[in-house]
Amino acid sequence: MQIPEQWFFEEWWKKEIERTFRESLIPIASICNLECPVCSSKGFCVEDYLYKHGLGDPIIISVGKCSKCGYKNVDVSVAEPHEPARIIVVVAKPEDLDSLVVKNSKAAVVFPELGLEMWPGPASSGIITTIEGFLVRFKEIIDSLCKQQDVDKNECEKRKQMIDWALERRDRCSDNERYVMVLDDPEGASYVYGERVLITALTEDVDYLEIAREAKETIRWVEVNQKY
């Protein structure tokens, strides 16, 4: 099930920025009199902040707002972007759900085994959250979609059950219950801070289920060899 990104973030992430991060943000730049992407006025301002989270390189958070129409947009990126990359996270233990995800506005998020996809649009937003945060938000949106008359109710219920199953790994996660989150970023401005993270080149021909299978095999091989 592919979720439109404008439903995924809406005002939720913008409020989270103001509520959670505002006190720990360091202002580094401000540009005004830019053209608003919605109303085309020159009332759009962008403020850049540096956020030091203690897990690795700092993060840049850009907050844009139009003084004319009220349009808001938020983007995030690592302070030192890398090459275009595919970031693969294997959820093998409960703590993997807490892996910090920095998703740039141009990045796509896919949970292959769960049948969940989120692809960026022209007014995409960046976000800082966890793998569990993505799953919870996916479920909230699917709950809303299931109430509409023109959707496949069976498909909705199936996806909700898959998300519930994934979130239950918080309490138990056996070796054959591992699943994967894939973050495709053409700008290399995203990152995931976790234990079971693989970073590969970004390719056009994609079989996400095969990517997930190979990633789980790789992580198992690493874990086995670390014991010796």
Structure in words:
The chain is built from five helices and 13 strands. It has helices spanning 5-9, 12-21, 131-145, 153-167, 208-226, and strands at residues 2-4, 25-34, 44-51, 59-66, 72-78, 85-91, 100-103, 108-111, 116-119, 127-130, 179-185, 191-193, 197-201. The strands form three sheets. It has a six-stranded mixed β-sheet with strand order 1-9-8-11-6-13, sandwiched between helices. A four-stranded antiparallel β-sheet has the order 2-3-4-5, covered by helices on one side. Strands 10-7-12 form a three-stranded antiparallel β-sheet. Helix 3 (131-145) runs antiparallel to helix 4. The longest helix is centred in the C-terminal third of the chain and has 19 residues, at 208-226. The relative contact order is 0.18.
